[in-house]
Specification:
- The structure is a single chain.
- The protein has a seven-stranded mixed β-sheet with strand order 2-1-5-4-3-6-7.
- It contains seven helices and seven strands; from the N terminus they run H-E-E-H-E-H-H-E-H-E-H-E-E-H.
- It is an alpha/beta fold.
């Protein structure tokens, strides 16, 4: 009887151990290699996009002139995002302070390639973008995918995000929103730019 109980106990423990092993393996497989957006303290990957005005937007080239405020908008998810409009309006209102920090702003406007330039033109209509602001087009999400910011859901494009990047491509500030709001404010951006200057 004792041997039978012990054998049955060992078999039960063996089954439990196998279940635990499979569970742990599944968790590891789900997390290993899982992409995540860039974080503060990491280096920003270089990218190259077409500017709305016909020029080229290459991050490394912009960084030669000074720090960059990289703003990922929702672009065109089927309509013009009102919160993106408000965010860009607030940044334009702080343009002089951003210029004082010798920084440039790159606005990334993602969306399906078909008609994206037309939609981007609609987005900037009525906005007087300062000289240090550049709107870059990201058709079919090449840059968004590179930064692991694709919001792959119906009527979505990218997670609204803001990165402040110093001249050496180090990310001094990162804020990624997983909803439509919770955007980086001009004050947060200016504080991050000031911290870059203080480190020099």
């Amino acid at each position: 009887m004792s041997t039978f109980v012990n054998d049955r106990t060992r078999k039960s423990l063996s089954v439990v151990g196998q279940i635990l092993l499979v569970t742990v393996a599944m968790v590891v497989l789900a997390t290993v290699g899982k992409a995540e957006p860039p974080k503060a303290g990491e280096r920003a990957q270089d990218f190259q996009l077409a500017a709305l005005n016909g020029g080229t937007v290459k991050l490394s080239s912009f960084l030669k002139k000074g720090p960059v405020v990289l703003v990922i908008l929702r672009g065109y998810p089927g309509y013009q995002c009102p919160i993106c409009n408000m965010q860009v309006g607030a940044l334009i209102g702080s343009a002089d302070k951003i210029i004082d920090k010798k920084a440039q702003v790159i606005l990334v406007y993602p969306g399906p390639a078909d008609g994206l330039k037309q939609h981007a033109n609609e987005f900037v209509t009525g906005k007087n973008l300062p000289a240090n602001f550049t709107l870059a087009l990201d058709p079919d999400y090449s840059m968004i995918q590179k930064y692991d910011l694709r919001w792959d859901a119906p009527n979505e494009t990218s997670y609204p995000s803001t990165f402040v990047i110093d001249k050496k491509a180090n990310i001094a500030f990162a804020k990624v929103s997983h909803d439509h709001g919770n955007r980086a404010t001009p004050d947060e951006i200016l504080t991050a730019l000031a911290s870059i200057k203080a480190r020099k």
